[in-house]
Amino acid sequence: MQKRALITGVTGQDGSYLSELLLEKGYDVHGTIRRSSVDFRERIAHLEDNPRFHLHYADLGDSMSLMKVIGKVRPHEIYNLAAQSHVQVSFDVPEFTADVDATGVLRILEAVRQCGLADSCRIYQASTSELYGKVESVPQNEETPFHPYSPYAVAKLYGYWIVREYREAYGMFCCSGILFNHESERRGETFVTRKITLAAARIAQGKQRKLLLGNLSSRRDWGYAKDYVECMWLMLQNDIPEDFVIATGEQYSVRDFCRLAFHYAGIELRFEGEGENERGIDTATGRVVVEVSPDFYRPTDVVNLLGDPSKAMRRLGWNPKRTTFPELVRIMVESDMAKVAAERAGEQVRVNLAEYLEKGILK
Ligand code: NAP
Ligand code: F7E
Fold this sequence. Notes:
By secondary structure, the chain is α/β, with parallel strands linked by helices.
């Protein structure tokens, strides 16, 4: 039997890697998209003419659209990856964030029930290490108390609990992956890792003078997104629905990430000063290439995330060290070095839109 999966948030970083993984496994993959003023879906453009890859309009803020797509596709598995996923932005649009990241999860669960799929459809919810927020202990595992510390995290906490509630109340196979930060060459450009790798590549190639960052001392457990989407799938193949922490078990600061990224771009950095006066200096030229700007400080910042992935290793057989931290940073920098070089050479880096229209791929 050919399995059907529905991925909300298919245009995002994780949605694109998960689509590739499920297509490789022989699934029929359905993804939800939103109407946007930008027609080109960069991360999934290469999948759009695959006959087993289908796109549907739906929005997590619109129950009827969710009922319609779930009723039509009748998926065996749903991966709810859609979210307003930027923590700093959640302070600016807290109500929208709550609607999509909290109530949106409820809408999916209810749509599955209303469509009569409660017994047959397995649901993965994209939960987050941000639930630990102002951390109560280090490292964090499935038993660590939550202390959400942003509108994003508070909304995701509702998502986590409503998934548990539907599991306990209706016996549904639904579970949350508590994923720590995972990055890639497809990461959005305003998240700190990608902001750094892109700036390092641009500065190394003379296209940018300086990189402005916020809290350099913030520490994260960073993994590779391509490795993490496999865990989402493994969780839905498990015998019972359970929540899992997915992390590498290693921690680095934003400053560490910066140092390594610039190193791979050919620039050795030395940091001097403290707080807002801290600066990253190119040791070869003495030029300041990294500065701190309070514009990137958050009203409340999560600064000490370190995950304990033992349960996922034991129960899912998952290997958290497949891609090491230096490999992750190198992959991202090499990709951005190539992108910046291609732009400099005036090469066409985007697929020709007209070609897409001709093939009938763009809807
Ligand atoms: P991302 O790149 O920001 O992608 C988010 C996706 O959600 C995009 O496809 C976006 O569509 C879609 N979306 C946003 N609002 C929507 C709405 N109202 N209705 C339908 N779709 C909507 O995020 P990601 O890094 O892939 O993360 C995937 C999920 O994992 C998110 O739920 C995130 O909160 C969670 N998470 C991420 C990490 C991480 O480190 N990456 C860690 C833990 C948890 P558009 O393209 O149309 O904007
Ligand atoms: O920030 C600090 C910032 O925006 C990481 C999302 O995928 O992972 C992500 O959320 C840290 C924070 O990711 C800048 O203050 C310093 O402490 O890359 P980020 P995030 O907030 O951890 C979690 C697990 C998710 O669930 C989210 O969806 O870096 N930082 N300077 C900066 N952050 C940004 N964005 N920009 C700076 O200039």
